[in-house]
Amino acid sequence: MGRKRVLVAMSGGTDSSAACMLLQEQGYEIEGITMRMWEKPSERGMEEPPYIREARLLAERLQFPHHVLNIQEDFRRCVVNDFIGEYMQGRTPNPCVQCNIHIKMKYLIEEADRLGCDFVATGHYARVAEEEGVYYVEKGADVKKDQSYFLWGLGQEVLSRMIFPLGGMTKEDARNVARRMGFVHIAEKSESQDICFVDTDYRDFLRREHATIDEEVGSGNFVDIHGKVLGRHKGFPYYTIGQRKGLEIALGEPMYVLHIDAERNEITLGRKEYLQTKEMSLRNCNFPSSETLSPNEIVHVKIRYKSQSVPAYVERIEGSTAYLRFVSPIEAITPGQSGVLYRNDRVIGGGIICG
Fold first, then answer.
1. Which residues pair with 317 in a beta bridge?
2. Phi, psi (5° rounding) for residue 126?
3. 15 φ, ψ to 5°?
4. Which of 318, 317, 281 minimizes the C-alpha distance to 301?
């Protein structure tokens, strides 16, 4: 029997490069693929942007095939347009989740099948576990870099073939792999930005990519919890739940965005305590196993990537919608972000926050 073949998603950065090196050391037969999803203004018109060149040169040095897949049209339709559309509905999107579910892993599996690869791999800091034939995402060992939050939507077909070579490592471990293999320049690369296609403030991106946004939306009212007008804002897409800075309104005490009403172009402001709630619902949910949840079990939930997980009960699940009740009130639940459920280090479900 020949060596197991794995298709590795290569971004040209430290993490995916280290993943290639590790897999090759472990005896896998590697093929690399770089997905051309978005061109920054500085890259437009280039035949080979720097990140593609970096990936290709690494593949040449390590002597494995490298492929480039242009999926810009699909990425714009599915991820960028969704990003803009969510803000235009008064929600705060999480494009990395959308990309992982509908673009990156979809094409990775399709290309793996086409190229005859048994497995697929990425440089995510996460792990995959299998129990009684069901595959789960688990947290990466590096608490600061753990990316399991972004992977809750992956299906069984993907997880059953998924390898995360960096799952048990820290970022410094990954850099050391590159140094050990003689790729010092790769080891010293800076961190990639949070949203790959937003190179400045997201508000500037919205204005650039949706040129008529200010004409469509225009300014609107800030109101208090009783509906009293407090002042004017620049347009609801430019604000997010829990925001305090950048409101450009003086009310004598710190005020926060409590609610965004897209239809009325109205933003409700209030004191921090009004951000607190004990209930949350999730849409478009994915639970790896129907046997995942026990009645009255307390799970831990993350409502944004950088937040600490908090204890909650799953009160009920209706189709693809889940209703949760937190043990203690939490603040700034933000529609459009992901709510991800954990049992210890294991992702047992997730969905998009809708309220």
1. 322
2. -160, 175
3. -65, -50
4. 281
Predicted local confidence at residue 59, as pLDDT: 96
Condensed to tens digits (0 to 9), the pLDDT of residues 67-105 reads: 999 999 999 999 999 999 999 999 999 999 999 999 999
Give the tens place of pLDDT for each residue, 48-67.
999 999 999 999 999 999 99
Chain length of the chain? 355
- Residue 29 token pair: 């037969």
Residue 31 pairs in a beta bridge with 7
The question of whether 354 is a catalytic residue gets the answer no
User: Residue 231's beta-bridge partner residues?
Assistant: 222
134-161 per-position pLDDT tens digit? 999 999 999 999 999 999 999 999 999 9
> How close are the terminal C-alpha atoms of the chain, in Å?
52
Which residues make Cβ contacts (< 8 Å) with residue 262, sequence separation at least 6?
A: 88, 89, 90, 236
SS (H, E, C) 127-155: EEEEECCEEEEEECCCCCCCCHHHHCCCC
Sequence-ordered list of residues with C-beta below 8 angstroms from that of 294, at least 6 positions apart, any chain: none
Q: What is the Cα gyration radius of the chain?
A: 22
Catalytic residue among 99, 117, 285, 354: 99
> Degrees (nearest 5) of the Cα angle 238, 240, 242?
140
Say if residues 55 and 66 touch (Cβ distance below 8 Å): yes
Structure tokens at 10: 């290569």
Write phi, then psi, for 87 (nearest 5 degrees).
Answer: -60, -35
For residues 267 and 336, what is the distance between their CA atoms, to the nearest angstrom?
17
